[in-house]
Amino acid sequence: MTPTEDARELLATGPVCDSCLGRPFAERSFGLTNAERGRALRTTIALADDADFDPVEPLECWVCEGYCGTFDAIAETIVDALEGIDFTTYQVGSRVPPLIEENEELFREDAGLEPDVGESLKREVNREVGRRVGAETGAEVGFERPDVLAIVDLDGFDPFDLLEAEDDEASAARTSDPQSVTSHAVDLQVNPAFVYGRYRKLERDIPQTEWPCRECGGSGVQLGDDGEEPCDYCGGSGYMYDTSVEQVVRPHVVQAMDGDEGTFHGAGREDVDARMLEGGRPFVLEVKDPRIRDPDPEALEREINDAADGSVEVEGLRLASYEMVERVKEHDASKRYRADVEFGDPIDEAAFGAALAELDGTTLEQYTPQRVDHRRANITRTRTVYKIDGELHEPTRAEVRLHGEGGLYVKELISSDDGRTEPSLAGLLEVDAEVTALDVTGVEGENEPFEREEYFRDDRSI
Hints:
Shape: elongated
Low-confidence stretches: 169-179
Radius of gyration: 33 Å
């Protein structure tokens, strides 16, 4: 059958608006809206039959039951909801009442058409409302992960009330009330924003992320004889340590983006008693429900560093996409370290040099260290020492520098951890050895840098 013949069958099912009539032909004539297709078919049939042109308003349509006439009102409601929110990409989704979906199936079935021919009302709502939102806001549609997502629940308002009010000049006050659509119809989701950077931890005994007190669970209180009292273990602070890199960075980024809360994602972590120096460690700060997405990264960097007062520094802050979170957490990285080492007995320069030469380039086996076996699986890990060297300052004191594969336990490489790491510096020298101070001096991708330009949302060069 021709499109005109199919259209005759569709019109025979009852009063149908132009959008619903055009929807089964959505794959024809690119560049037309469904309403334009429907009106063209209705016009063609009227001319062929020399009949009066008799358009059907959405309010009278048995298929959509008026919803095709509400696209403008829904878009206006979404634009109002977006007031005060910074975004460059958006997407509109919808939930269509089951009764309307059933009407669509019956509509095609009664006309002898395939049930999925053309497109659904859901897709038309998404496109037509989305097109209007884009025209009003100047934003672009983002299909994968938009800044904002508006879900329209058509069951959340009555199209008859809305369209009848629009037809009645006496109801002008009513139509200006967005509650006719916004009360339950639009669910606005603001996706997180992300700031990437690297941090240096210049003082020891600062964890990467906040560390709630294990005794009071972070509440800062405990039960005493007279009721609740400050926790003895944490002094009432609720934390094991006074601050953390996260607590230094997060408040400033969240405030700059006018968000609700933030989550810190680091590329691994150093021990609490280790410093993170030189190039720093990559991190991403994820901000929930941001109302600002384009703060000045350089100004934010200065603000954080001034407030940290020398304990922590950040650099290279950039606005990033959500892919940077996975990049930071999953990207294979190698690490560089500098360690102060003390020996239980004196050693000589030759023995020290020979032990380092034995470890240089070796692949070793490390059973889960005793200091972390309460929170990590007891397995044997194979790791490679890419390069190691050092200087013996005194018979019982040395400095060791090394570059190793990610996941290498450096303290145990030195001490052997009662034989749980083989080979080790202590094992080769046959003396006790202990790391008394550890600095991480580099965190870099194994095969390529952490920073990938396609994961950033600015044009600032690395």
